[in-house]
Amino acid sequence: MKPPKTENKDYEKVPTDDFVTGTIEEIKYEQDHEFKFKGESKRKPAVRLKFKIDGLQYPHYSRWMTFNYGEKSNLLLKYLIPLVEGAHPDMDFDLDALKGMKVKMLWNEQNGFQSVETIRPLGKKLAYKQPVESGVPVIDVDSDLQPDDDNLPF
Prior knowledge:
The protein has one domain. The protein has one helix at residues 74-83, and strands at 20-37, 40-53, 60-61, 65-66, 84-85, 102-110, 113-121, 126-129, 138-140. Helices cover 6% and strands 41% of the residues. The strands form two sheets. Strands 1, 2, 3, 4, 6 and 7 form a six-stranded antiparallel β-sheet that branches. A three-stranded mixed β-sheet has the order 5-8-9. The longest helix is centred in the middle third of the chain and has 10 residues, at 74-83. It is mostly beta strands and 154 residues long. It contains one helix and nine strands, in the order E-E-E-E-H-E-E-E-E-E.
């Protein structure tokens, strides 16, 4: 017996030749995500970002990352340091503060899988200040997230 024919799906691709703009629409969490690396499987808390990219119909996502702010973590190095002013390892920061942030991203494609290569705020970074003695972090959200062409590093 042969399996039934399946329909080939063409997924909406993000352009990889230039920066695209969009919004961080949502932060997705999984308490017990399975990560596989070199044949080894580990279960850890995980997180990924959901993007609404300007000009594209469907949402696009970052890859799943371990949910920690360690000095070598992809979450810190690839997302928090470029998007949050004063980001540092093991900071006390609520990741949900990134929701609604306008960003520009450069995507790459490898083996048919697309991922975010570079991400920058479209405007100013989210300001983060060290927690006050109460232990509650202070997050200043700058409502002026419009691009300032004179200060863009690209």
